[in-house]
Amino acid sequence: MKTINRQRFDFSTLGRSVARGATALAVVLAAAGAAQAQNQDALKLYQRGLAATCANCHGTDGQGVVGTGMPIINHLSSAELLKKMTDYKSGAVTGTIMHQLAKGYTDEQLQTIASVLGKK
To answer: Under CATH, which number does the domain 11-117 receive?
Structure first.
């Protein structure tokens, strides 16, 4: 006759193991949430940085720069801004320098700039 080695299961260790696993999961989820928040902050910074490139000529947030003769763009909607920038990029409209600058941006970047600077 064979003897079977039966181990006694200790339920008290199960509770501690589950608690440790739950704690580890909470730490991982918290870290993931923090990373997602950092990614959102980085995305917003990138978007504002793209829009800030317009400030040299059009002023902060498109409010204009006194005495430069550059168009004030802060009254335009996002759609109007995007249309103007894509027209410059395609060559449909030319300007002193804007048609050259617009060609340096991807369509996605122009969309981002328009959404940041456009009147809501």
So the answer is: 1.10.760.10
Q: Where are the domains of the chain?
A: 11-117
pTM (whole model) above 0.70: no
- Structure tokens given for 76: 């335009």
What pLDDT tens digit does each residue of the chain (120 aa) get?
Answer: 565 656 555 555 555 666 666 677 677 767 777 777 778 888 999 999 999 999 988 998 888 888 888 889 999 999 999 999 999 999 999 888 999 999 999 999 999 999 999 987
- Using CA of residue 101, residue 106, residue 109, residue 113, what is the dihedral sign? positive
CA angle 39, 42, 48 (to 5 degrees): 140
* Total residues found in the chain within this entry: 120
- Cβ neighbours for 116, distance < 8 A, ≥ 6 positions apart: 47, 48, 50, 51
Indicate left, alpha or beta for 14 from its phi (over 0: left) and psi (-120 to 50: alpha): alpha
